[in-house]
From TrEMBL:
HAMAP family: LPS_assembly_LptD (MF_01411). Residues 1-27 form the signal peptide. The gene is lptD. Its main location: membrane. It is found in: Cell outer membrane. Belongs to the LptD family. It comes from Caldimonas caldifontis. InterPro entries: LipoPS_assembly_LptD, LptD, LptD_C. Component of the lipopolysaccharide transport and assembly complex. Interacts with LptE and LptA. This is LPS-assembly protein LptD. Together with LptE, is involved in the assembly of lipopolysaccharide (LPS) at the surface of the outer membrane.
Amino acid sequence: MPRLVLSARLPLLAWTLAGACATAAPAGEAPVPIVLRAQELSGQVGGPTVAQGEVALSQGPLEIEADRLEYDPDTGVAKAQGGVVVRRDGNVFRGPELQLQIERYEGFFLHPAYHFDVTGAGGQAARLDFLGRNRVAAIDATYSSCTPDDTGSYAWVLEASGVKLDFENNEGVATGAVLRFYGVPILGAPVLSFPITDARKSGWLPPSINLDSRSGLEVAVPYYWNIAPQLDMTLTPSLSTRRGAGLGSELRYLLPNHSGEMQLELLPNDRTTGERRDLLHLQHRGALPLEGRYRWTHTRASDDEYWKDFERNIPSLTPRLLASDLRTDWGGRGRWQAYARVQRWQVLQDLEAPIDAPYARAPQLGLRRSWGEAVGPRFDLELEYNRFELPDAAAGRPEGQRTHALGRLSWPLLDTPGAFLTPRLDFNAASYRLDEPSLSGGRDRASRFIPSVSLDGGLRFERDATWFGRNYLQTLEPRLLVVHTPFREQADLPNFDSAGKDLNFTTLFDANPFSGVDRVADARQVTAGVDSRLIDPSSGAEVLRLGVAQRYLFADQRITPEGVPFTQRSSDLLLLGSTSVIPSWTLGGSVQYNPEIKRTARSTLSARYSPGPFRTLSARYSLVRNASEQMDVGWQWPVYTGSGRGAGDGCSGRWYSVGRFNYSLAESRITDSLLGFEYDSGCWIGRVVAERRSTGQQEAVTRLMLQLEFVGLSRLGSNPLRTLKDNIPGYQLLRE
C-alpha cells in the first residue's frame, strides 16, 4: 500500500531503537535475564552498580556496548557513556551517551548515528527522547543511504527538525522535513504525517512529472486516502501546460466475497480541444449463490482520439478496443458448468486506419461438461446461445442469433512417455436466425452440421549424445495428424466470431484452421512433422530445438481463411530452430516457405546476447510477404564502468544505455523508438528516457521521462520502468 514518501523510512529509527533499549519485560511476561560483562565491576548493596572497560550488556537480541555503564536499582536508571553501541536485528546505533529509566522506558540518547540493514541506509540525530514504551521523539534527524564525502556532505539526505512517533496509534509526525539533492532542496513540507509500520495511512504520495508532445508538461500529486481496512482511494490532481487541470481517482475494495477497483481519469475542459475528456475503468469480481462466480470489466473513453493523447491511462493491451464484459459461471469440475455473459465493445476509430467493430454478445448463455477419466474415452460437450449485435455505424453486416453445439469424443489408445495415439470425433452444429432476411432466397434462418474425424499420433526417441564437448539427452519426436472433414457450404452463413489462425507449429496440427464457431474448413489431409531437441540432463533445460512440418492435402480445400479455394497438394513448409547452447547467446528463427512460388511467405530471426547482469542486446527481423518487413533492436548496456563509491552489489557499471528501435524496411522509416540513460551512483539512480511512438502514418507522440530513485527511500519524477520492461527484452531493474 502507498505511504508518505518524505518520511517513509524515518519510523525505522525510533522503532528499532525503542525495541533495542527495552530491557524490561512487558506486564504479565517473565523477565528476560540481563547478562553484563566488563573488565571491572563495582558496587554496594542499595547503591549503583558500575561496569567499566569493554562493557557488554545483552538481553535477548539486544546488545549494548560502552566504555562505562552505571545502573541504579533504586531509580531504575541505566547510564551508558563513551562509545555507546546498540545492536538489535542487524541495526546499529552509536553515540556518546545513553540514559534510560528501564521500568517507565523514559530517557534519551545523545547524538546517535544509526544504520539500518533492511535499507542499507542510516543517519544521525542531535537527540532521541524516549517518552514511554510507545512514544519516541527525535531532534534534528537525518536519513541517507549515501556515504559522506570529504566535507561530510551527502549526495542526498532527508532532514527533519523534529520527529514524533506514537507506536500505539501507528502514527508519526515530522516537522520541517526537507529532501536535499547535492545540497539543493527538491521536496519538503512543514508538517508530515506517516505510518510507522507497513500499515496504510492517509497522506500525500511522491509527485510525478510527465512531458510529451501532445500534452506538454504535466505535474500530478497523488493523495492516498485510507478510508477503511477494506477500502481505500487515491486521488491525483494534475496540471498540464497544454490541457489544463485534471483529476484522477482510483477506488479499491476488498470484501470477504467480493473485490474490485474503479478508475476515473477526468479532464473537465481540455484546453486543446475545448471538450471534456475522460476514461472510466471498472473491474469487479466475486462470488454468487450456489457456488457461482462473476467478473465484470468495463472500460470507456470519451472520444476516438483518447488513445492517442492518453494511452498511458488505458489499462488494456488493445487501446483502440475497449471492452465492457460481464461474465458469470456456476459449477464445473466434473459436472455441468453453466455460464452467462454480456460483452460489448467501444472502438476508437482512426480515419487513417479504421477497424471493424467486433460483434457484441448480448447475451451469451451456455452449458459445458466433460465426461471421462485420465485414462480411457473422454467426451466434451458445449451448448451455447448467442445474440450478436453491432454498433449503428457498422452498417452492412448482419445481426442475429446463433445456437450451437460443439462435441468431441476422444480415446487415447496409447499414452506413454515414448508414444501416443488418439483417435477423435468432433462435430460442430449451429443454427442461425438473423434480424433481416439476408440469406439466399430471402431467408432469415439457416442451420448446418459438420462432423470431423482425426487421428493424432507421435513417437519420442531418446539417446545420450555428446555435442560441442558436452553430454546431452537428444530426442527425435515425429508426429502425424490425419484429418477428414467433409465440405459443407458456409458462404451464405454469417460470420460472427471466426477468423483464420496464424500458421505456426501449434496451429498446423489443429484440425480446423479457423478460430470460433462459424467457419469449419473441409479437409482431407495429413500433417507430418518432426522435432529434435537437446536437453541438459542436469537441469532439464532445452538448449537446442530443430523442427520441420508440412500439411499434405488429398483434395482441394474449398473453405479457407484467405477466402479462395486452396488447390495445391501441400501447404507451406514450416521450419523452426532455437538454441542457447552458445554461452550468453539465445538464437531463434522460423521460416514459412511456399514451395509453389519457391519463396518465403513469412520468417522471423532473433538473437539475444546477455553476458551478465544489466547487459543484454537483442535483435529481431520479421517478414510477412507483401505486408510488412521490420527490424527491431533493443539493449541495456553499461557505457562507462567505474569503481563508484558505494556501488550496489552486481552493478559494475555506472552509466547504462537503454534503447529500442523498430524500423520498417518496407516504409523506410522508424515506427517506434526509445532511447535513454541510467546512472547508478551507488546511493541514487537517475534515469532519462525519450520515447517516440507512432499513432498513424503521419502522426507520432514523443514523451520524455525523468526519474530520480533515492536508494532506500523512494522514487521521484515520471516512471519509465514499465516502458523499459515492456520494450526491451531482458531489461533488468538496477539493484534487482
